[in-house]
Amino acid sequence: MFSTKSRYALRILIDLAQQKSDDFIPLKDIAERQDISKKYLEIIAKDLVKGGLIRGASGKHGGYMLTRAPEDYSVGEIIDHMEGTFAPVVCLEENAGECPRSGVCKTISMWTEFYELERNFFYGKKLSDLL
């Protein structure tokens, strides 16, 4: 299950993409259009800026904008940034050490298949597909 942070992050990015503007879009406008608390969106937007997914500017003409074209964002990278790994089990996480049960584990092939299906699905979807 994905958190509201991930779902709202997608909504922020979709909203920014729909504006088709070279100007910064005020967060209060996004909050109104998306019917989400501006306070909560501030937390999510800061995380998106930190991850390089959007740019922010403060001041009178401040707000947020995409850092690249909508077709250059995968849904997977957005969810990955907000949630962390897609790995359904610890032994499939990036930089996981050798699992002591890898030689006898009867479920690893199932987890690996699920992981690849999920990852390929979300990384195969582009932000532009959601517009």
From TrEMBL:
Q: What is this protein called?
A: Transcriptional regulator Rrf2 family
Q: Name one GO cellular component term.
A: cytosol
Q: Record's SUPFAM superfamilies?
A: Winged helix' DNA-binding domain
Please indicate if the UniProt record lists DNA-binding as a keyword.
yes
Please provide, alphabetically and separated by semicolons, the GO molecular function terms listed in this UniProt record.
Answer: DNA binding; DNA-binding transcription factor activity
Tell me the Pfam families matching this sequence: Rrf2
InterPro entries reported in the protein's UniProt record: Tscrpt_reg_Rrf2, WH-like_DNA-bd_sf, WH_DNA-bd_sf
Q: Does the keyword DNA-binding apply?
A: yes
Taxonomic classification, please? Bacteria, Bacillati, Bacillota, Clostridia, Lachnospirales
Provide this UniProt record's keywords sorted from A to Z: DNA-binding
